[in-house]
Amino acid sequence: MQHVKNTLLIDANVILRYLLNDHEVMSQSAKKIIEANSTYTKPEIIAEVVYVLFGVYKATREDICIFIHQILKVVSCTEAQSVSYAIDLFADSSLDFVDCLIAAYSKINNEQVYSFDKKLNKMIERIQL
User: Fold this and answer.
1) Cβ neighbours of 58 (radius 10 Å)
2) What is the enclosing helix (H) or strand (E) of 7?
3) DSSP state of 23
């Protein structure tokens, strides 16, 4: 994905305020920035959002999946197809999001993965079938 001038890279804090609408000023600002500009993010930022939602806000995997799909509709993301696939894997497994992202890269980008993580290897094997 190439980014043109006047696009804004937004971080996890902006995404979280937008999704959670939990801070009067910052949430409104996040909404205005996202809706009025061409915004984008990156997989590592999505990973931070997932970890905060899961660890701090105790959101369920299913709710996190809904949140991430919601943000991917209004904010472009590098590796969007892999991120979308990874969040679906995350919702239906016990793997952490980064492992799901690695599995998604394996499937979507046909990347070979070498890992000592048995659960990750099993997931990669399962999704390649």
Assistant:
1) 8
2) strand 7-9
3) S
Dist. CA 28–CA 63, nearest whole Å: 22
Instruction: Answer for the pair 84, 30: CB distance below 8 angstroms, yes or no.
Output: no
Asked if 36 and 2 touch (Cβ cutoff 8 Å), the reply is no
| DSSP state letter for 122 | H
The CA distances from residue 62 to 7, 16, 59, 80, 100, in Å, are 30, 16, 8, 19, 14
- The β-bridge relationship of strands 38-41 and 7-9 is parallel
Distance CA 37, CA 94 (A): 36
Q: Which amino acid is at 18?
A: Y
List the chain pLDDT tens, one digit each, 129 residues: 444 456 899 999 999 999 999 999 999 999 999 998 899 999 999 999 999 999 999 999 999 999 999 999 999 999 999 999 999 999 999 999 999 999 999 999 999 999 999 999 999 999 987
Contact between residue 40 and residue 55 where contact means Cβ atoms under 8 Å apart: no
